Amino acid sequence: MSAAHVTAYIGLGANLGDRLAALQGAVAALRAEHSVAAVVLSPLYETAPVGGPEGQGRYLNAAAKIDTTLKPMALLDVLQSIEAAHHRTREVRWGPRTLDLDILIYGEEVITSDRLILPHPRLQDRRFVLAPLADIAAGVAHPTLCWTIGELLEKLDPSDVGDISRVALEWPRRDDEL
């Protein structure tokens, strides 16, 4: 009997080095993972850093929808190994990074542990997460807030649009575009 596939949503970001190459490398690694059946990507966004030390460079951000047989902790392990392969270090909270991969939503799972909180605890507050996520999952309900991703994006304070803009960089958004 094969394991059931679960739809998960991943946030991707990078603000050090060749940001686009890091995101492309992360997507290639996800697509090569035998327990990931499909990857659909949002467009790319460029955003100012939120929190963390002053003087950080701008981020490239995106969101990915994946179908996976991995359990949440195993998926976290895979994402952290992809980050490590891209020289991610964890020295300063919200500091600059070569690659950042976060599980935003994993099916309807609600988890609170030392290693992982699902759904991501701040996704509803961050335009740089919600905007790309809404591009691929606007109608998906947040597992605990009972609002869709599109509704959460609309509910953000309109005076706080955030420093975010869609980037006109092309990259394969679906597996069939490779």
Written description of the protein model:
- The protein has 178 residues and is an alpha+beta fold.
- The chain is built from 4 helices and 8 strands, in the order βαβββαβββααβ.
- The chain has helices at 19-32, 72-85, 127-137, 149-155; strands at residues 6-14, 36-41, 45-47, 59-68, 100-106, 111-112, 117-118, 164-166.
- Strands 1, 2, 3, 4, 5 and 8 form a 6-stranded antiparallel β-sheet that branches. A two-stranded antiparallel sheet has the order 6-7.
- A hairpin with a 4-residue loop joins strand 6 and strand 7.
- It is globular, with a radius of gyration of 15 Å.
- The model has no long low-confidence stretch (mean pLDDT 88).
List keywords for this structure.
178 residues; alpha+beta; Alpha-Beta Plaits; six-stranded antiparallel β-sheet; two-stranded antiparallel sheet; 4 helices
Secondary structure elements and their pairing?
Elements: E1 6-14, H1 19-32, E2 36-41, E3 45-47, E4 59-68, H2 72-85, E5 100-106, E6 111-112, E7 117-118, H3 127-137, H4 149-155, E8 164-166
Antiparallel strand pairs: 1-4, 1-5, 2-4, 3-4, 3-8, 6-7
Helix pairs in contact: 3-4
